[in-house]
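Hypothesis: this fold can be encoded by more than one sequence.
Test: take the structure tokens below, design a sequence, compare later.
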């Protein structure tokens, strides 16, 4: 339980990033191009957040960054496939 409490402020930031992205996605539902920009921004912010989080806890390694990039890329591919479906 202490481990979760220690990381809670960081997770609030991540939740804020994801909620802001979801809200922007809904508000700009009429503009596919802007939704793409929002999706790329959220994926980028996720990678940056992960790097900052692990850097603060002194466990930032190349493998960790690659993992965040891969997860963000997969999520971005899923979202883009939904936006650009015909």
């Amino acid at each position: 339980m202490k481990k979760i409490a220690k990381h809670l402020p960081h997770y609030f930031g991540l939740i804020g990033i994801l909620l802001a992205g979801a809200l922007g996605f809904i508000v700009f539902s009429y503009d596919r191009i802007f939704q793409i920009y929002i999706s790329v921004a959220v994926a980028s912010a996720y990678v940056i957040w992960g790097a900052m989080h692990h850097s603060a806890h002194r466990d930032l390694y190349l493998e960790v960054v690659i993992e965040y990039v891969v997860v963000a890329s997969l999520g971005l591919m899923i979202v883009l496939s939904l936006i650009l479906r015909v």
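The two ends are 46 Å apart (CA to CA). The CA atoms of residues 15 and 21 lie 10 Å apart.
Hypothesis status: open.
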